[in-house]
Specification:
The protein is α+β, with helices and mostly antiparallel strands and 297 residues long. The protein is built from six helices and ten strands; from the N terminus they run ααααβββββαβββββα. Strands 5-4-3-7-6 form a five-stranded antiparallel sheet. The two termini are 43 Å apart.
Length: 297
C-alpha cells in the first residue's frame, strides 16, 4: 500500500476516534477513568479495520488506488472499502463491547440492540468521514485546476505573441488543401460561406446553431437551422477546431485564456471576451491540444 493512502486511512480512523472521545456512545461516560482505556481499545480496532480493509481491497480484490482509472472506478473502490470496513468494525467492536464494556448501569452484551447501535454509529462516522474527504479532494482538485490554468495561460500568451508577429489573428489562416471555404447551411435558406480558420466558436441554441466568425477584422455571428453534428462534421476535421461541450465547438487558435471553475474549465475567446464552456469529458483533450498544438495551430 502506498504511504499516502495509509496516512489518509489513519487520519480517517483518527476522525472516528475523536467522535467517540466527544460523544462517548455506548454508555462509556459511566466507566470513569476506564472510559479512556475503552476508547483506546476502540481506537485500535478502528485503525486495524481501516488498514485491513485497504489491504483486502488492494490485494484480494485487486483494486489499486489509481485515480487515473477514472471517477466511476474510484467510486466503486470506495464503496467496496467502506462496506468491508463497516462489516469488520461492527463485528470487532460488538465483540469488544460485549467483553469489556459492561457494568451495573450499562449493558453492552451481545444483542440485536447492541449490534444495531454499533452499526448505526459506524455508518454515521463513515458518512462524516466521506464528507470530509470529499471536501479535501475538491479543494485539491480546484488548486490543481488553478495551477494548470495558469500554466496554460502562460503558454497561450507566449503563443499569441509569436503568432501575432508572424501573421495577424484577424486574417483567415487558410491553406488551399486543408482550409478551403465551406458552406454551412440548414433547413432554411440561410447559409454561410466561411473558412474554418475564421470560425471562432459555434454554440447550440435549440434546433439552431450560432456561428461566431471573423470577417473584416471583427466578430460576426449567424443563426442557422442545423445540428451541431452537421457543423462538427464540416469543421472539426482540422486539428485546432474541436467540440468541447455538447453545446460548443471551439477554434483553439482564438482562445485568449483559460478560466478555472468548480465544474471544470471555461475558455475566454479573443474576440468579444465570449466564454466557451468545456465539459469534463473534453477537458483533458482541450488541455492536451493547448499544451501540444499540432502543426498550424
Amino acid at each position: 500500500m502506498k504511504t499516502t493512502i495509509i496516512k489518509e486511512r489513519l487520519l480517517s480512523a483518527l476522525i472516528a476516534i475523536l467522535f467517540f472521545v466527544v460523544f462517548l456512545p455506548f454508555g462509556l461516560a459511566s466507566f470513569g477513568w476506564m472510559r479512556w482505556v475503552l476508547i483506546a481499545g476502540i481506537g485500535i480496532i478502528i485503525a486495524f479495520c481501516v488498514l485491513m480493509s485497504e489491504l483486502i481491497v488492494s490485494k484480494l480484490l485487486r483494486m489499486p488506488n489509481d485515480v487515473s482509472l477514472g471517477s466511476p472506478y474510484i467510486i466503486r473502490r470506495n464503496i467496496c472499502f467502506e462496506s468491508i470496513n463497516i462489516l469488520l468494525s461492527v463485528a470487532l467492536m460488538t465483540l469488544f463491547l460485549d467483553t469489556f464494556a459492561n457494568n451495573e448501569t450499562v449493558d453492552n452484551h451481545l444483542s440485536w440492540t447492541t449490534l444495531s447501535s454499533v452499526f448505526a454509529i459506524n455508518c454515521f462516522t463513515t458518512i462524516v468521514i466521506h464528507i470530509y474527504w470529499r471536501s479535501v479532494y475538491k479543494k485539491r482538485y480546484l488548486m490543481k485546476q488553478l495551477e494548470e490554468a495558469q500554466l496554460l495561460n502562460g503558454m497561450l500568451q507566449e503563443r499569441q505573441r509569436q503568432l501575432t508577429e508572424k501573421k495577424p489573428w484577424s486574417k483567415p489562416l487558410a491553406t488551399a488543401n486543408s482550409d478551403d471555404t465551406i458552406c454551412i447551411s440548414g433547413a432554411t435558406k440561410e447559409s454561410l460561406n466561411v473558412h474554418p480558420s475564421q470560425v471562432v466558436f459555434v454554440s447550440s441554441e435549440g434546433n439552431y446553431v450560432r456561428i461566431h466568425y471573423i470577417a473584416d477584422g471583427s466578430l460576426h455571428n449567424m443563426l442557422i437551422r442545423t445540428s451541431m453534428k452537421n457543423v462538427s462534421d464540416l469543421i472539426c476535421r482540422l486539428p485546432y477546431i474541436m467540440q468541447c461541450h455538447r453545446a460548443f465547438i471551439v477554434n483553439l487558435r482564438y482562445v485568449a485564456k483559460v478560466e478555472s471553475r468548480s465544474s471544470g474549465i471555461a475558455l475566454v475567446m479573443r474576440y468579444g471576451d465570449e466564454n466557451v464552456l468545456v465539459s469534463k469529458q473534453y477537458t483533458a483533450e482541450v488541455k492536451e491540444r493547448i499544451k501540444n498544438p499540432t502543426t498550424g495551430v
